[in-house]
Automatic annotation (TrEMBL):
Pfam families per UniProt: Epimerase
Top-rank lineage group of the source organism: Archaea
Segments for region (Disordered): 304-329
InterPro entries: Epimerase_deHydtase (IPR001509), NAD(P)-bd_dom_sf (IPR036291)
Biased composition (Basic and acidic residues): 304-322
Name assigned to this protein: SDR family oxidoreductase
Domain NAD-dependent epimerase/dehydratase span(s) in chain numbering: 4-224
Entry similarity comment: Belongs to the NAD(P)-dependent epimerase/dehydratase family.
Length: 329
């Protein structure tokens, strides 16, 4: 049986990754600081190695203890962490770094690996943990993968777009799930046709394993739902999963401004389409879950959770004022 070391592994993508690896006959070790509840504490085939991934000695100890065939790095947020890991795990069969669609610097449709320009990253950005430096840091991590492959390391990266699904602690989609579940009328920014490519978390998990097994060293692979949906279509899928109906009311920036709101106040709204080409990953044999099925699973877990996405709420009272204005037009 092959062994896998997952750096991270207990919260969102890593949690689904561990389940995917178990389902494909891997012995799994999760490496993290133990700051979050471990859903695999009593799971056969999963062991926990406690340590801080920013401590190279701890990673070296984990490698010595586990002797992994593959390593999947869920929590490398700074480029120097990727460089250290590719040195430490230079002889494994596959090291996979989770990058991001945010690594792309150019707004084109679609964004393609090896074609679309990546973000530059200054030395200051490389160690800055702010949101503004996220894309540049991920891009520089990709460049660390390219450099490692040139040294003969079997290192690859996977670039997800917005990830959604069960156990999403970011609660980005939970905001919209809660809205559909609680209200008959939803205020939708702009015309509801914006495209922000999303990726179902179980598909991201399978992509990470498949790239570790089948990917080419030095290559990056985009991952996202093979069927793109607009915001209106996404809300329709959510309503279907709840077995309910909602009225979608579209509002421009001008209309939203009557209550002090803007289109940018709405999570998962993006003015320019963000679309990734996923054909390269599909060529390895990867498949995505039908979006209706993915949404049904997401809604089912949402109902069992206590998440409501309230941190992303622009304010229902303000929305009601906008709805009132639109009703008079």
């Amino acid at each position: 049986m092959d062994s896998a070391l997952v750096i991270g592994g207990t919260r969102f993508i890593g949690r689904h990754l561990v389940n995917d690896l178990l389902g494909n006959d891997y012995d799994v070790t999760i490496f993290n600081r133990g700051n979050h509840d471990n859903p695999f504490a009593d799971t056969e085939g999963v062991t926990h190695f406690e340590g801080d991934r920013t401590n190279d000695s701890a990673l070296e100890a984990a490698k010595s203890e586990v002797s992994p065939d593959i390593v999947i790095d869920c929590v490398a947020y700074e480029p120097h962490e990727v460089r250290a890991a590719t040195e430490i795990f230079a002889d494994v069969d596959g090291y996979v770094y989770i990058s991001s669609g945010s690594a792309y610097a150019t707004e084109v449709i679609p964004k393609r690996e090896n074609e679309t320009e990546l973000c530059d990253c200054t030395p200051e950005q490389a160690t800055d943990d702010s949101h503004d430096s996220y894309g540049p840091r991920k891009a520089e991590g990709d460049r660390a993968i390219f450099e490692a492959a040139e040294r003969g390391v079997n290192a690859m990266s996977v670039r997800p777009c917005i990830v959604y699904g069960p156990h999403d602690y970011t609660e980005r989609l939970d905001f919209w799930l809660d809205r559909v579940n609680e209200y008959d009328r939803l205020l939708v920014p702009s015309d509801g046709q914006n495209l922000w490519h999303r990726a179902y978390v179980e598909d991201v998990a399978s992509a990470l394993r498949i790239v570790a097994e089948e990917g080419e060293p030095g290559e990056s692979y985009n991952v996202g739902d093979r069927q793109l949906v607009t915001m209106d279509e996404m809300l329709g899928l959510i309503a279907d999963a709840f077995e309910t109906d909602v009225e979608l009311v579209h509002a421009s920036d001008r209309e939203l401004s009557t209550a002090g709101l803007s289109v940018d106040d709405y999570i998962l709204y993006r003015d320019y389409p963000h679309v990734l080409d996923t054909s390269k990953l599909a060529s390895l044999g990867w498949e995505s879950t039908p979006v209706a099925e993915a949404m049904e699973r997401t809604v089912a877990e949402h109902l069992e959770s206590e998440r409501d996405g309230s941190e992303h709420d622009p304010g229902r009272e303000s929305e009601e004022r906008v709805l009132g204005v639109l009703d008079t037009i």
